Amino acid sequence: IADDDGAVLDAVCDSLTADGRFDVVAKARDADEAVAAVVTHRPDAVLLDLRMPGGGIRAAAEIHRLESPVTITAASAVVSARDVADLLHAGARGIFAKGQLGADLAELIVRCCAGQVLLHVTAAAEGLRAYARPIA
Asked: CA–CA separation, 100 vs 49, rounded Å?
């Protein structure tokens, strides 16, 4: 789990640990720490804060380039259509609005790990249009 807000980091960690389907193997406060934690621990999934220092999009892209099959998810209080498109290009399978997560976070991540792509943000449709290439 990577988030520069310590309270959010601890709350998400506690929530996922309490769910019973997750073992949180590392916490990171910025993009560099997140990438290093994935290299060290080889987790099945990673949840990145979009707006953390170094950028969640950059972290997602670097993690996606690793030869480790990790499911990348991201969350932020504000997610634009451009963010959605950039995160999808960077390999994210789930993009979530922090204010809408609640108890659903664990289930959303599990569904992403099972192969679904979930865009739980207001800008999802616009982001998909920006991500998709026109068909000639």
From this structure: 14
Amino acid (1-letter code) at residue 77: A
Percent of the chain with pLDDT over 90: 68
Contacts of 8 (CB under 8 A, 6+ apart): 49, 98
Q: Nearest-CA neighbor of 48 among 38, 59, 36?
A: 59
Q: How many residues would you count in the chain?
A: 136
Distances (CA, A) of 49 to 33, 75, 94, 129: 12, 5, 12, 23
CA-wise closest residue to 2 among 82, 75, 89: 75
Helix (H, G, I), strand (E, B) or coil at 74: strand
Tracing tokens 């569904």 back to the chain, one arrives at: 111
Give the N- to C-terminal CA distance of the chain in Å, as an integer: 40
Residue whose pair of structure tokens reads 């998909």 in the numeric block: 128
Over the stretch 34-45, which tens digit does the pLDDT of each residue have? Answer: 999 999 999 999
pTM above 0.85, yes or no: yes
Which helix or strand (DSSP H or E) is residue 81 part of?
helix 81-89
Report which of 34, 31, 134, 130 is spatially closest to residue 84, judged by C-alpha positions. Answer: 130
